[in-house]
Amino acid sequence: MGFNFSKNEFNQLLESLDQEYQIYAPVRKKKKDSFSANDLITYDLVKSLEEIELTAKSKYSAKEIVFPIRETLFHFVEGEQFMASDTDDKYIIFLRPCDRNAFKRLDKIFLENGPEEDIYYKRLREKVKFFVIECTTGFDSCFCVSMDSNTVESRDYSAFLRFEEDGVSCEVNDQDLAAEFEAQAKEIDFEPEFIRKNKIEVNLPDRDKLTNEVFEHQLWTEYSQRCIACGRCNTSCPTCSCFTVKDVLYDENKKSGERFRRWAGCHIDGFTEMAGGHNFREEYGDRMRYKTMHKIYDFGERFDFDMCVGCGRCDDVCPEYISFSKCINKLSTIIEEGV
Ligand code: SF4
Ligand code: SF4
Questions:
Q1: Would you say residue 113 lies in a domain?
Q2: How far apart are CA 316 and CA 16, in angstroms?
Q3: Residue where a domain stops, chosen among 153, 188, 223
Q4: 131, 153, 188: which is the final residue of a domain?
Q5: CA–centroid distance, residue 314 to ligand 2 (Å)
Q6: Whether residue 211 is found in the same domain as residue 326
Q7: In a domain, 52, yes or no
Q8: How many domains does the chain have?
Q9: Residue of 223, 227, 317 to mutate, ligand 2, most atoms within 8 A of C-beta
Q10: Number of H helices, E strands in the chain
């Protein structure tokens, strides 16, 4: 079902949806980036069309809404445990096709990667509706077409929106929301469009040709010299899903406290440190190899599509100008040409 809104009508729709949903979208925060003169594009609550940043890529993705940076799992008092309480909040998330596909990867990791579902992820994820932002031009560092993440399969979204100069055209696939859209706008024919070519093309290596010799290749030593293990590539990645778990005891009663999980990343010091102090990926190049293989090899071996969606955020944020897309291409050349 297609609709067309004027800007005012769309704002009325948002006002109406805001009664029931927390609406998250990319926003521009003036001079809030870690480099203080720069704006930070990140996710936050919005109430109007004017607040949504549509001209720049967000530095961070929407994953923290469903997989919070720090999340309490349960509380304990003396010998008893209590699962952390849930909220009644429901969410609408505005995001581009690559980021919609990133949630497909997170769903695999948290819900289908073993016999048990992650109950904390599941209870948030079930309350999310996706509003996909049409993206036909992309940004300089994107390579979503190479990663097959430029489109959204089976129209798997609640709404798909095209932002135009004088309004918004869209498609609605969600019966819960159709009446709200109908009340605010006129019906039109609508067909979603997607980007078909990025400035960057990535050649994925043939998985069958990735052998153990690649692990020892000198390619990775370059990253040992350049990477500073800041972890920015991990925190900005919409598909990185590693976390660490910690207990804290409350001062008032040392037999009470909570267990929480917090984002962790394979590039960060301490990630592979084990009891006794053994660290099996000390070299930064080894961490780059591990991340690369996870994003374009072993996740795909298990789930039939690669983990990386080609959003290019890791390239955008790396202070050492390390490019993941170039790393994949170098690896492919090594595999194909045996260098
Ligand atoms: S590895 Fe880089 S390009 Fe791929 S999904 Fe993560 S941030 Fe995006
Ligand atoms: S952002 Fe760059 S320097 Fe920082 S950990 Fe990632 S690859 Fe290394």
A1: yes
A2: 36
A3: 188
A4: 188
A5: 8
A6: yes
A7: yes
A8: 2
A9: 227
A10: 11, 12
For the Cβ of 313 lying below 6 angstroms from any atom of ligand 1, the answer is yes
Atom 7, ligand 1: residue with shortest CA distance: 237
Distance CA 147, CA 308 (A): 7
Q: Map residue 261 onto helix, strand or coil.
A: strand
pLDDT tens-place values along the chain, 339 residues long: 899 999 999 999 999 999 999 999 999 999 999 877 899 999 999 999 999 999 999 999 999 999 999 999 999 999 899 999 999 999 999 999 999 999 999 999 999 999 999 999 999 999 999 999 999 999 999 999 999 999 999 999 999 999 999 999 999 999 999 999 988 888 999 999 999 999 999 999 998 888 888 888 999 999 999 999 999 999 999 999 999 999 999 998 889 999 999 999 999 999 999 989 999 899 999 999 999 999 999 999 999 999 999 999 999 999 999 999 999 999 999 998 876
Residues 221, 173 share a domain: no
**Ligand 2, CB within 6 Å, residue ranges:** 227-233, 267, 317-320, 322
9-47 burial, b for 16+ CB within 10 Å, e for fewer?
bbbbbbeebeeebbbbbbbbeeeeeeeeeeebbbbeebe
Which residue has its alpha carbon closest to ligand 2 atom 2? 318
Pocket flag, ligand 1, residue 324 (CB < 6 Å): yes
